[in-house]
Amino acid sequence: MSRKGVGIAAFDRSRITSRQFASHGSSLRATNAQALETQLAVFRSLLQQFAQTHAKDIRSDPSFRAQFARMCSAIGVDPLASSNNHSSGSGNSVWAQLLGKTVNDFYFELAVRIVEVCGATRAENGGLIGLSELRERVSKGRMEGADSISDDDVRRAVETLKPLGSYAVVTVGRKEYVRSVPRELSTDQAAVVEAAQVLGYVSVGMLRDNLGWDEARCKTVIDDLMAGGMLWVDKQTKGEWEYWSPGVMADAGTDGEAGV
Amino acid sequence: MATTTTSPPPQSQSQPSSPSFPFPREYFFPAFFTRQTNITIHHAQLTKWSALILAYARHHRLFRITISAAAESDLFFNRGIDRRLNPPDIREVLDFMRKDGRAEFLRPGEGNGAADASSSAAASGGDVVFLYWRKPEEWAALVEAFVEETAQKGSVLTVYELTEGENTRGTEFHGMDNQVLMKALNILVKRGKAQIFGSEDSLGVKFF
What we know:
The complex is a heterodimer.
Chain A: H1 9-53, H2 55-60, H3 62-74, H4 94-99, H5 102-125, E1 128-130, H6 131-140, H7 151-160, E2 168-172, E3 175-179, H8 187-199, E4 201-202, H9 204-211, H10 215-227, E5 232-234, E6 242-244, H11 247-258
Antiparallel strand pairs in A: 1-3, 2-3, 4-6, 5-6
Helix pairs in contact in A: 5-6, 5-7, 9-10
Chain B: H1 39-60, E1 64-66, H2 67-70, E2 77-78, E3 83-84, H3 87-99, E4 103-105, H4 121-124, E5 128-131, H5 136-149, E6 156-158, H6 159-164, H7 178-190, E7 194-199, E8 202-207
Antiparallel strand pairs in B: 1-5, 2-3, 4-5, 6-8, 7-8
Helix pairs in contact in B: 1-3, 5-7
């Protein structure tokens, strides 16, 4: 391009060039999109092939399954979405199409076990159970020789329960929980549950000193959590009452037994 | 099956000598020893205590406990974490078990336990409690099966033979509490499957 044009024609010229740029751009975009689409299609079929050849591994190896699931979600394929319209239309999930139902069933069966365990323990933990504890309990109830389960599987299975409304994975502090009651923790409650993870218990004084809350606030939150069944009171302390997270019951066994 | 270590005479209670009982996790949870105020939790707590007591009794083949003595035993007193279930709470758990047919309060003055325990015994403060890790009906079925298997229908066995005899060694009711056995036998009597005769210290049973 030579020097900058002068005069009225310059306006026209710039308009033309910008139009050309625009059309060129959009054609580039189109080809890009097309290339991506074919890439995705290729990838999808490769994924399908991969899943078919490795179906057994996916089913039997929890970490492999987790990796595969992560890969699927990375490219925007939700392996568990129950109706995927642009593929064969029969309303099956990708998992189901890829693997002939079994993996899908795997998660649904797992979900059923999760509902059972949550129901059985709800009375003692108020419907808030540690993810790994839940996994442990579910694994314990499974038949000898059944495939092992990872935390990731539990997470995915809980995800399938979402339509039921009350089931969700929540993170409090550094720990993941599965919540099986339609109750959200308030910020204060979450803070107390988080504090209870550290020592296993909380007390009014402890909360007052560490969170800087006044006594009434501490009491209210503790009472709320007690009412919800998420804390157990221990009155046999030398000083003030301690409120224990029932999750401790799950971990206490191993190191506690040695001491007796 | 519970290996029948040379079980002490049936009236012994608490402080057993069998290998240590594997306590469940909740036994190491301090708050497990405080009566919970939330109703749902309290129910879960009672259920867990009930299961613990029965498992413990089964492990040590305890047929009865004396509440005041048991309160000091490791069943209700975890010295490791210095927590104990107080007698009123123990009583509540046992009463919970009674409603489930898993415990029965010995009525003060109840002699050779043929009589059914009154449901008010819990309140009236009996100190001795039968623990039914097997209910009397279940014991009755075991005895009946034993008699059937060993072809002793129609013959007479003494109560002593049933609990202490060579022939019953290896059966579950060998060495069992006499009073609980009598409850079981009385069930068989009611069903017309057995007849008890003899005097206090030499009771005999005939099975049909």
